[in-house]
Write a structure and sequence with these properties.
CATH architecture of the domain at 401-611 in chain A: Sandwich
Number of helices of chain A: 11
Structural class of chain A: mainly beta
Number of strands of chain A: 32
EC number (chains A, B): 1.10.3.3
Strand content of chain A: 25-35%
Oligomer: homodimer
Radius of gyration of chain A: 24 Å
Protein name (chains A, B): L-ascorbate oxidase
CATH topology of the domain at 401-611 in chain A: Immunoglobulin-like
Signal peptide (chains A, B): 1-27
Distance between the termini of chain A: 44 Å
Helix content of chain A: 10-25%
Subunit structure (chains A, B): Dimer.
Domain Plastocyanin-like (chains A, B): 38-152, 168-356, 471-589
Chain lengths: 625, 625
């Protein structure tokens, strides 16, 4: 940081500390220990009282801040009465600690009600991360928080000198229907199948205002004034404005659980905004009224800086953007709205507050308008601009294996599921890692064969599954099969989107890989044809990421190196899509599993309970590349 | 049954079958196998849509019907996504199968999400039973159903000849707030502590009508007519009547999930009504308009028949009553209302329908009025009349141990708890049965001492805990300690009620014992003084039960023989009271545990996971009587 110190004397001590921290002390790696109680809490994230899963009595969970190279140790006690829990550290690679990845059925047994488990893992590099539940739909129930890893002298960030201070925004969406009911709907058969619909509220750092975008005013007079003009000019009879006119304004005062977040900044500086999205469903767009944003980080990786008026962010992604406080000292709207699906949810609002502006001068003018939800071209323009910053590792040229994954929405035994190559993921009761550890793959899941690594190319991605020619449409199956990946293999994954069940509809899916970053080699429309398209892939400066978007009726190609033995989920980060089976499992380097010190208590459940007493089976034979 | 056959020819075959069954065939004991999927379902038990825990897609769960001497085998698959489950077979003694008692933390590990467990147990005697979840508050979430064990020639019922047919009513109550929020409120500290309040609806066989006791009419005209007269005479401005006037009537037609139950009967017969209550909170009163009831069974035990106009039934209890269809052929209200707490819930209504009455002639006249909720004298009169039928086993005269249990509502670290001798039960993560089986009591729970078997007699039960003299008030503690009971011991338990936190308030608690029936030796007001009161106890014909009521500011004495090795809960059957710690644990005959064939998978969780690989520890030393 160039100069974190403003003119105010009161900040002096903090500034000294910050400067010491940023420039003069190379902090020695430490183990940072936390004790968390996970429990039900009554909370009003959007001013509507609801039960949520909280940590240490609060929502969202505590922000973890660490330095690159530190070890994080979180002792989690499960005080939920009947639910197991796990916590996934999104974006952390878990090098050598695959049992700490926090994925139920995959890396770990759920922490039992009344039990506890200590996650201990290295945060190997700086970046903007977060954590969340990864069991059932507990993320959507509120089990999440921020995880910020600061750069160090040993692992500096190339844009460190470009900013003076930072703020963090964890974005999410919130449903008034509880996740048990959401799951009941998604599990329903035939006419009982029920989609979750759009969220009621968008949240910024866990705060939103349901049914009242006027919540950010301080008093009724200001509210009434705003009703009259800024938000909704007289004569605007849109549903949104009618709703605003009907709505009550308060009391969304500061201090309540749903008062809007205000980020204080000083004029004439540059700020880093860390923005991460852990939405259940919504793709979001973030704007700061009157300010440009320069993107510098994506998913903990450095990107070639580029300037935009707004960013799109999909569930599972994170960005850092730099913002110059170069406008008239005042306060400005930060607006977060829905893209990619027809929005039924009001944009979330926060405030960028210049500290020397009048304390109760609230933002004026109209809130920034979210770009049209269905302007996919605009979304692609943003996404396609993201390139690795110079100095980023380049992908290996030689590829050992290519897996093509057709993304479809399928009918299956009266249910609606998402499927990859016509297989919908059905997770086992015994975590895969435990199954391999104890050598009981045969009883723990279907280990008779691997997941299919391509689909019948006569499948027409422009048509719904129901309209396919019979020979193109393999029968949909539910399976817990895995992809076995040999240690060290270089793997290309082609994500191939297709039409959903409804004609003319293809959805956006943000795919997230555990245990790895991957290079995003390219995107395209229509069907990926290797002979035609592989030459166009970007191997010069492809960005490294852990989450990547798959656009409607298009394809995305990514590459990763299987250098981290473990069982890793790769899945659509939309919670109800994963619930409906939209994911696959990579069992990577299982022949090296015995070299790891897997704690038995992490993997002893399901079928492993009856074999835990037995000596371990011989190590797994090497898998094909 | 004397004559199960009515005059109608269509019933002939059924009648022949029934007669064969009842009189001519001594059914050989069989194993009755069931497969259950436990899952979330969207249901409308009181016409309001809600998520519930269902079995095989329905609420309530399927009725199990068996013959005395049969073995029930239920393979339960847990399809809840994050919750474990257990199922308790209420009133079944689990002779030799203590791991099948279905109590989480006590007899068994929760069945994991995605896992399954087969409960297999003997139903050793005829009677009216039920089953329900016994983990967290899953009973209140809808996880329950009926379990009817028919008499056989080998195990006849003394009143078999007195009735012609039977119907079954499982009573429950229903909250619109989900159990996770209920638990969050009960777990809350200081001002965040929140009592669950009164239920929104009472259910009969899983059906009720929220906010509209007119739901039982078939059409709007009849509804409007009823609004005018029968229910609420003009001029009655009571809140109840105002609510009825505001309410909508339909469409509560037959076939919807919330239409009222109609029990068809033929005139001039006698019917056995099996009535069981699995309410979360409410004590209930059951009446049948214009009909008397003769009580013949309580909790699967025969009682000396006595005639009443209505019965009180507490959560955890069951009764059989005989009803003569000696009224004018018509249809009659069955009304179930709240007693013991100031009711805020409309009575539930069902219909006793004489089959030869006009099919759409609905009951006329005012529904039977529930006796005043606070008329405790009337409640006691009913309860005190219950005596064992001649021929019932009498209790042993020699008592090995007497445990006195003071029931208080206590403040504890900012929470409100229920406590026994100032100890509030806090269940461990490792089930006790597993802890004893693996010999890891020391790590699994506080085995350093036993639960206290009495309280300081200077405690004034007429005063709140806060008003006690300091020397009378032991500090409240939370503990998972047990009572160790030697095999074969004869144990007397004195339940001593006291004042709650609010001055002048003492609540009704129905106490339920697992693994046993007990003799109810007596009740009294005030403090039980052994020297003064023991001589008045009834050892001549005390009724056998598994649940017994403790009246406000009074005492109840019961006796049981510790003839069934296992770890058994003894607790208030009010779900939120148990949640707040109102129970104790009897670890009975643990020195005989190794003679039982405890399935490892039933008890391998919590601390047992890390020792499951080890050989079993030496058997437990005999415990003192």
């Amino acid at each position: 940081m160039a100069n974190p110190c403003g003119p105010l004397a009161v900040h002096l001590l903090i500034c000294i500390a910050l400067m010491l921290f940023a420039h003069q002390v190379a902090p020695a790696p430490v183990t940072r220990r936390f004790k968390w109680d996970v429990e039900y809490i009554m909370w009003a994230p959007d001013c509507q009282q609801s039960v949520m899963i909280g940590i240490n009595g609060k929502f969202p969970g505590p922000t973890i801040t660490a330095n690159a190279g530190d070890v994080i140790s979180v002792e989690v006690t499960n005080n939920l009465h009947t639910e197991g829990i796990v916590i996934h550290w999104h974006g952390i690679k878990q090098i050598g600690t695959p049992w700490a990845d926090g994925t139920a059925s995959i890396s770990q047994c759920p922490i039992e009600s009344g039990g506890n488990f200590t996650y201990e893992f290295l945060v190997d590099k700086p970046g903007t991360f977060f954590y969340h539940g990864h069991f059932g739909m507990q993320r959507a129930a509120g089990l999440y928080g921020s995880l910020i890893v600061n750069a160090t002298d040993k692992q500096p960030e190339p844009f460190a000198a470009d900013y003076d201070g930072e703020h963090s925004m964890l974005l999410s969406d919130w449903y008034h229907e509880n996740v048990y009911a959401q799951a009941a709907g998604l599990d329903g058969k035939d006419k009982h199948w029920q989609w979750v619909g759009e969220p009621q509220t968008l949240l910024i750092n866990g705060r939103g205002q349901f049914g009242c975008s006027l919540g950010i005013t301080r008093d009724r007079r200001a509210c009434d004034r705003r009703k009259k003009d800024a938000f909704c000019p007289e004569g605007d009879k849109s549903e949104r404005c009618e709703m605003i006119r009907r709505s009550e304004c308060g009391p969304f005062c500061e201090g309540t659980k749903c008062s809007p977040v205000a980020f204080d900044v000083e004029p004439g500086k540059t700020y880093r905004l860390r923005i991460a999205s852990t939405t259940s469903l919504s793709a979001l767009n973030v704007q700061v009224q009157g300010h440009k944003l320069t993107v510098v980080e994506a998913d903990g990786n450095f990107v070639e800086p580029f300037e935009v008026t707004d960013i799109d962010i999909y569930s599972g992604e994170s960005y850092s953007v730099l913002l110059k406080t170069d406008q008239r000292p005042s306060s400005y709207w930060i607006s977060v709205g829905v893209r990619g699906r027809r929005p039924k949810t009001q944009p979330a609002l926060a405030i960028l507050n210049y500290t020397n502006s009048k304390p109760d001068s609230w933002p004026s003018g109209v809130t920034p308008e979210t770009p049209a939800w269905d302007n996919v071209t605009r979304s692609k323009e943003f996404t396609y601009r993201i390139k690795a910053r110079a100095g980023t590792a380049r992908p290996p040229a030689a590829v050992d294996r290519r897996i093509t994954m057709l993304n479809t929405q399928n009918r299956f035994k009266g249910h609606i599921k998402w499927a990859i190559n016509h297989v919908t993921l059905s997770l086992p009761a015994t975590p895969y890692l435990g199954a391999y550890f104890y050598g009981i793959e045969d009883v723990a899941f279907d280990a008779t064969a691997e997941s299919p690594d391509t689909y019948d190319r006569s499948y027409d991605i422009e048509k719904p599954p129901d309209a396919q020619a019979p020979e193109a449409m393999a029968p949909t199956t539910a399976s817990d099969r895995v992809f076995r990946i040999a240690s060290g293999a270089v793997v290309d994954v082609v994500l191939q989107n297709a039409n959903a069940l409804e004609a003319g509809v293809s959805e956006v899916h943000p795919w997230h890989l555990h245990g790895h970053d991957f290079w995003v080699l390219g995107y395209g429309d229509g069907v990926y044809e290797h002979e035609r398209d592989s030459g166009k892939l970007n191997t010069a400066n492809p960005p490294l990421r852990n989450t990547v978007v798959l656009f409607p009726h298009g394809w995305t190609v990514l590459r990763f190196v299987a250098d981290n033995p473990g069982v890793w989920a790769f899945h659509c980060h939309i919670e109800p899509h994963l619930h409906l089976g939209m994911g696959v499992i990579f069992a990577e380097g299982m022949e090296k599993l015995r070299e790891l010190n897997v704690p038995r208590e992490a993997v002893t459940c399901g079928a492993a309970k009856s074999v835990a007493a037995l000596p371990l089976a011989p190590a797994v034979a090497p898998s094909p590349p």
